[in-house]
Design goal:
alpha/beta; Glucose Oxidase, domain 1; 2 domains; nine-stranded mixed beta sheet; 8 helices; 15 strands; about 30% helix
Length: about 300
């Protein structure tokens, strides 16, 4: 059987040894196959009885689908790669836009639907819709990197990051972070500029995420959602902003406008990057959750835009 399933079994065996012996990756047996964990979120691939799976696939029911490819390899033997392997790879990598345009499930292709039947993996319509929506989702990181001696607002604490625990000594790595609460990409609490206003831990969490748009000053801004600006806005824009009742405002704003917005209990974000990557006037979902700092005047955030 080993010879008949050449070359996929040889390729799988070589990578199995590489990941389990050199990189010490965990693995387990599923029926007569080996499931090997490879870090990341890239999917899974079957090479005979060796199935390499990412963080999501590794211990999920979707392994049944990949095991279906293992059975295909047993049935087709040396014909597996030209009949199943290469067409499956092309369908996965090159036909993403086609599937999106035609609203076709990944599992509708013959290589995948047959693998589902052989492996006993049944995909419900709700699951197909969920997978389809996830495949169309684009995530844009709006956060700047934090590092020692990075640029900070004049007068703010300098950033110092030092390694305090080491793999060689303690068996793990741990860093000591020294920085201000308004370092890098951050959110301001109302108390940042107003003593009698709420601190970051007192503001409800649902104020830190929601629908938003990147807009121009000359646009007719939408009402009731977050607004982000790449052009500088100032106090002269306050009245129009208040009329739109945004959940939060971020981007290029001056200090006077920031102070006025916080006085009106509107959350503000500064230090954002990559706003230019978001299409103008396209609604997306924004997340910028703060650390739960008691009596905090603000907090660094990992801000992201989810489009689709």
């Amino acid at each position: 059987m080993f010879i008949l399933e050449f070359p996929q079994n040889l390729i799988g065996y070589v990578f199995f040894k590489l990941y389990t012996q050199k990189y010490k990756r965990p693995h387990y047996r599923y029926r007569d196959a080996y499931i090997i964990h490879v870090k990341g979120r890239w999917g899974a691939i079957s090479l005979s009885r060796y199935i390499f799976a990412d963080d999501i696939y590794y211990k999920s029911k979707m392994i049944r689908h990949e095991y279906g490819h293992t059975i295909q390899s047993k049935l087709l033997m040396p014909l597996y790669l030209p009949i199943i392997g290469f067409p499956s790879l092309v369908w996965n990598r090159l036909f993403k836009r086609y599937r999106k345009r035609k609203k076709k499930s990944y599992y509708s292709f013959y290589t995948e639907s047959w693998a589902n039947r052989l492996g006993g993996y049944r995909v419900k319509k709700q699951q197909i819709n969920k997978i389809f929506r996830r495949s169309q989702m684009k995530i844009i990181d709006l956060s700047t990197s934090i590092y020692t001696n990075m640029k900070v607002y004049p007068g703010d604490p300098e950033v110092k990051i030092k390694i305090r625990h080491h793999y060689e000594k303690e068996g793990w790595e741990l860093r000591h972070l020294m920085m201000g609460s308004h370092t890098g990409t951050h959110v301001d609490s109302f108390s940042h500029m107003h003593e009698d206003k709420k601190s970051i831990d007192q503001i409800p969490l649902d104020r830190f995420f929601g629908e938003a748009q990147v807009v121009k000053k000359s646009d007719d801004w939408p009402k009731g959602i977050g607004l982000f600006f790449t052009e500088e806005i100032g106090l002269e824009d306050l009245e129009e902003l208040l009329g739109k009742k945004p959940n939060f405002v971020g981007g290029n704003m001056n200090e006077d406008l920031e102070r006025a917005l916080l006085c009106e209990n509107i959350v503000t974000y500064t230090g954002l990057v990559n706003l230019n990557l978001i299409p103008k006037r396209k609604t997306f979902t924004f997340y910028g959750l703060p650390l739960n700092i008691k009596d905090g005047d603000g907090s660094p955030v990992r801000a992201v835009a989810m489009i689709g």
